[in-house]
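Repro:
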Amino acid sequence: MASIQVSPSPAMVDEKLTIIVKGLNVGSKVTIRSFVTEGRFKFEAHAHYVVDHRGEIHIAEQPSHGGTYTGVEPMGLFWGMQSCPGQRQGIRYMKLDVTTPASTTLSLHKGHLDTSTLQDDQPITTTTVDRWYMAKNVQRIPIRHGRIRGVLFKPKGPGPFPGVIDLFGAAGGCIQIRAALLASHGFAAFALAFFGYEDLPKAAWNLDCEYFEEAVDYFSGISYIETGGIGVVGVSTGGMVALLMASLYPDKISAVVSISGPVAMFPFPLLLKGEVMEYIGWEFDRVQKSPDGGHIDRYAAESLQIAPEGAKIKVEKARNLLLIYGDADVNWPTDEHTSEAIKRLDAHGHHGYKMLCYHGAGHLIEPPYAPTTSVSLFKGDITVWGGTPKPHADAMEDSWKHILEFLSNHVGNRTLNTEYSWIKSLL
């Protein structure tokens, strides 16, 4: 009798799974499908396999011959997911409630089937694996302190724990996936909202930099946060804010990770001590369109070559930096901006940085083994982020390892063991 075996199960989202299908006829053709729902949206992937001499399929060893991905891809059934047919264009997978798992159904089907046929095909067998962003030994604490808003995640216990502030970008709100995962690896991680959340401003225009300083002071002052400096991680606009924070408050921030982040103020001004900061302009008439009508924003940004010096972030004042970007990013000229950052750092004799450039990766480099996003609906428009699934998935996997290592080495006053085997021993 055929069966699908998954281990570990349940698992963390960033854990690589072992998937084995047993009890099959040698040489037969089968399709394995993955399926998950998030709110009212549905996502799936599928792959074609030929059963080996043991009557088994080992996903980590055998190639997919077709489907959503090809080749040997141990986690292709997860990063290769796409929105199911019949849904609105541009649906992006994003786990909104990290206190519940991403419950993924794996199903086995006879023959090599396509997406359309799989919608109604009766599977031979199924199994479900629960994948978590938030480990069971992690606490989730909503924060309303003065005007500071967000959600803090920490391992259970008195600590102290190395502290990290986590920022997402121009989507606003309070996205919690990365903070929950960081806490699951032993950090106290604060998903800091800065607009479009609760009673915060609805837009990012003219935000007060002192808000971020207040957040740093509040977070650093919590009794279970290790001394020695906190870390800040940000993606896209959040990466810009992270770099700005690290340059303004280097005595309080010991490490910064910028993922696809500008190194100049863009696309809106912030206030610093009541004064409007200079920023890079945005030329809407230079936005290009993809063949299917998506916005390609990369060319709308004013070049750094003509940008006012006051708009450029003084990254050389930050202590330790990890700069991450993909060379297929078409949302933002991250290559130009990262080059500018390296130039400034080198000119000031700053050697405390590391740069990671991923070939074929786009803008949204997020924690691994989740569906990749090259195009999505963003603020009412279809936006092209760039990248192709396989190299982008590789970038997500590799960069996450570097992020954990970098933060463990430079945040707090000790090196943190971020392996799950160590974390689980605390349960």
